[in-house]
Amino acid sequence: MLVTKTAQAGSTANSDVLITVSPSETPGIHLQLKSKDVVLKLFGEQIEKVIMDKAKELGADNVTIKAEDKGALDYTIRARLQAALERASN
């Protein structure tokens, strides 16, 4: 999946996540995760794993992913990421 522009999916409402994807000039998937400190401490690794696994599953490369988590469940994170990647790749 070739990301050609910046796109978003989701919101900053409780129990959701705002995913922003944009093209990157360097190879790979670059993730920036933002959430409350306690959430990052308890669930940060799981959230990162969900995002990275889904991005790889969709064939994303040369992409920067910014995720602003507000307590989203795994299936919500996957859906928001897929929507943002599809919007960014035409």
Q: Can you tell me about this structure?
A:
Helix content is 41%, strand content 27%. The protein is α+β, with helices and mostly antiparallel strands. The mean pLDDT is 96. It holds the Pfam family ACP. It is found in: Cytoplasm. It comes from Acididesulfobacillus acetoxydans.
Features:
90 residues; alpha+beta; Ribosomal Protein S5, domain 2; Lyase citrate acyl carrier gamma chain citd signal direct; lyase; Mal_deCO2ase/Cit_lyase_ACP; phosphoprotein; lyase activity
Q: Which SSEs are present, and which pair or pack?
A:
Blueprint: E1 7-10, E2 17-23, E3 29-34, H1 37-57, E4 63-69, H2 74-89
Parallel strand pairs: 3-4
Antiparallel strand pairs: 1-2, 2-4
Short recap of the structure:
Helices cover 41% and strands 27% of the residues. It is an alpha+beta fold.
Shape: globular
What amount of the residues lies in strands? 25-35%
In helices, the fraction of residues equals 40-55%
CATH architecture: 2-Layer Sandwich
Order of neighbouring strands in the sheet with most strands: 1-2-4-3
> For the record, what CATH class applies?
Alpha Beta
InterPro entries: CitD (IPR006495), Mal_deCO2ase/Cit_lyase_ACP (IPR023439)
Keywords: Cytoplasm, Lyase, Phosphoprotein
Pfam families: ACP (PF06857)
Subcellular location: Cytoplasm
